[in-house]
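[audit] Reproducing an earlier prediction to check determinism. Same input, same settings, fresh worker. If the tokens differ from the archived copy the diff job will pick it up downstream; this log only records the rerun itself.
[audit] input (332 residues):
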Amino acid sequence: MHALARSLAKDRLAHAYLFTGPHAIGKTTLARALAQTLECPDTARPCGECIACKKIARDRHPDVQIIEGVPVGFKFDEKSPPPPPRANDWERRIIKIDQIRLLQHDISRAPFESPWRVIIVRRFEEANEEAANAFLKTLEEPPAHTRIILTARDASLLLPTIPSRCQVLALRPLAPAQIQTALRERWGVAAETARVLAHLAGGRLGWAIRASENPRLLEARHAHLAALHATLTEGHNEKILRAETLAKKDEDLPEMIEWWLSWWRDVLLTQHGDAARVSNIDFEDTLRAHAARFTLEQIQDALQAIRQTARQLAQNINPRLALEVLLLKLPA
């Protein structure tokens, strides 16, 4: 961050950046802020109040373009409607060569109303090999009026030639106190909500911001944890039926698995007296009850079973069968 700030102060930005870090840690938020800094006419950039800053915040600026992959099976061409919003952080998408070709055509043109044309390509690890190779030429010789920002979970997931042509900036998880302060002071989130979100975020400011603006994220979490807690009191036949019900919403399973993992990690931390590191701080009483109810071996077995299920789902194992095995392995 300090290196980026120094580059801005000296007006010596690189032609291309690669921001890396876990999903929802704030890579796109930082990319938008950098775009605002480049396009803002105010002396204290970015001001956040000028027309350029507001357009960029709403993804409406004609010279700032955000590209990301399309759903598997989505037919992309110049006349295609925009792809639907990403269902969740785990939805599989592909950046196609046709998107790259259209992008290359767009950036060849001069900016319309600002000094720079800024291109933000999210989750570049989703680019297929054809698209990634096609983008190399643009990274090597971008137009003078263009700045390119790529984001990815990890530079190792990309073709080695991609990071080598960018200035790489790795984003690290933030402490809960930092996220809580940012939510309250910059996004006006109520104190208790900011405290809960800061602990649930796992260092991901981007997720905390989204959760503060979209109640569905916390509602989904409550539903996933309620299903887990119910499972811990059910018999064999009830678990088989629950597995069948859960498998019908397979697009929600990666998110559910993440919340179930976070729960058992918190139970383990609570049992070891490490409450300061607990994420689900709004369920402290239930965590203490589970920490007293289950043995260390049961908690560790639950964590191992959930991780194994996550791997199986990523390998396209039948969701119902994978969930049946998982639920029957969980302690009762």
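[audit] rerun output stored. Observation attached for the diff report: The chain has two domains: 2-170, 214-329.
[audit] end
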